[in-house]
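Quick start: what a row looks like.
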Amino acid sequence: MSRKIVMGLLVCDHVADRFQHLDGDYPAIFPALFARIGTAVEWRIYEVSAGEFPAVIDECDAYMTTGSRASAYEARDWIIRLKQFIRVLYRSGIPLIGICFGHQVIAEALGGRVAKATTGWGVGVHPVTVDCREEWMEPFEPTPGLLYLHQDQVVELPPGAVNLGHSDHCPVAIYRIDQQILCIQAHPELSRPYLAAVLEDRRPLIGDAKVDAALAVLSNPTHELAIARWIVRFLRRG
């Protein structure tokens, strides 16, 4: 996959209107991340949370599943259909990247399990400890800092999945299945201003202590560009 990547973005939610002045919506946020590392990507947008799926499964080289305020274990029609689509992608050998909700729903679709984190909300900047270094992890960062915003997390990996890293609050922070599927619990696509705004907005839900602690570390170094490069190298190697 050395040529331009044709990436299908499976949009599972939208940035709330009151926050879109910060970075836009997901169909703009994800392309902006990969533009920062100079990767040529042709994006095709599918509003899966509104029931829009690719007409032909191989019309893209790879697919990426976004975050969502929904839970991967909910019995919503579009989530059920998304899980079916994920299973078809897997059987077809088409590469798939999962981010946050995407990380979770892929696990659920392929035989893993997602639940509320016993430690509560995972928010702010957390380092990921890489437990299994792979050749596509270049430039290598042993403990990349990433932005987190989640309440659910993967508690059982799907069969055949390899856990590649953990964070202090999240035992399954990065995993892969074969050289086809790569999933990341954190949000490399989000910005600090956006996360700060959402944290303040959700303060009653998340709790003052968690929000204050998250805001206190929001200026810590992050490595979203390294993660974006890992994703590209993973796709091209696969």
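That is the whole record. The domain at 5-237 is CATH 3.40.50.880 (Rossmann fold). Residues 77-92 form the longest helix (16 residues).
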